[in-house]
Amino acid sequence: MVFAKEASAALLVAALPGPHVCVSSRAELIATTTKRAPAVVFVDFDLLPQIVGATTNVTIVGIIDEPLAGAVRSFNSFPWLSHLVTSTMLATPLARSHLALFLERLQFGPEQYVLGASGVGRVALLASSARREARFERMREFFAAHRVSARTISAINDVAEELVTNALYDGPVEAGYFKTPVPRSENVELPPEHACEISYGIEQGSIFVRIRDPFGALTRNRLLGVLNRCNTTGVSLDESRGGAGLGLWRVFSAASTIAITVIPGRLTDILVRIETKKKRSAGKQFCAIHMFFPEEHSLDGAQGRFAADHDSDLMDDSFTALYVA
After folding, report:
1. Angle at 60 between CA 225 and CA 112, to 5 degrees
2. CATH class for the domain made up of 2-108
C-alpha cells in the first residue's frame, strides 16, 4: 500500500515489483487495511503522524529526503518505525531491485540471498581477532581484482573492521559469554561454534559486506543510543563495552544501504552496501536503513543459546559464491 504525495507515489508505483494500492487519506488507509491488511505500507515522512494508531501488524516504510542525521531523528520521533528509504533512491534503477529484496526479506526471513544474478562474492568464518587482518587483506585483493576504486575499498574495509571487531569483542560481552569487556588491544580467540561469518561481494554497481554473529546481543535501544550520541555536537563517547561508540556511526555514514537483523541470543546480522557507480561530483548517497528487531526485552535466559551451525572448514579459508539460476 502507498500513502504518499503524488511525486513519491509515482516513484513507488514505477518501482514496486508487485501489486499495490494507493490511498490519499488516513480514513481511506484505515478502511483499506480493515478490508485487506497489506504486508507493507509506504508512507511519506510528513504523513507518518497521521497513521499513528491507524494500523496494526503492518510493516511501515517511511520515505524521507534527508541524510543520515535526519534518519536517526526519524527513528527517535517514531519508536515503532524500523524502515526508511529515500525518495532519491526511488528515482534510480536501484529502486526496483532494492524493494524486491526488501519484500523478499519480509516474506522469507533473514536467510534471504545476498547475491543477485550478476553477483559474485566470498564467505569465511573468523574466530580469532589476530587473523582478521589477513581476511581483510584477502577482501581488499578481491575488490581490487574487480576494479573497485581504492577509495571505495578503503571504505568497505573500515566497515568490515568495525563490524567484525564488534562481533568478536562486543557481542560476546553483551551476551554474557565474556564476563567483562576485553580491550580491543588484546587478542580474542572464540571456539568455532561461536565464530562470526563474514561475506562480501559485488553486484550491479554496489559492493557489500555482511557480518553475522551467533550472540544476537545488539538491541535497538543500544544502536540508537550510539547513533544519537554521534548525531549531536559534543559527542559523549561510550567506552563501557570496550569501544568508543563512534565505529557504528562511521559504518552508517559510509553505507548507501544498511539492514540489521537480530534474533536475541541467536543472531546478529548486519548487511552494508556501498554504491560504486556514481558520478564523482555526486558523492555518497544515503539510500535506506532497515532494522529487523523483535520487541525489546531482557536477554536473561537467552544467554548461552548461540545458533552457530557452521562448517569449520571455512575457519581459515573461504569459498567463492556465485548465483546459479
Report:
1. 85
2. alpha beta
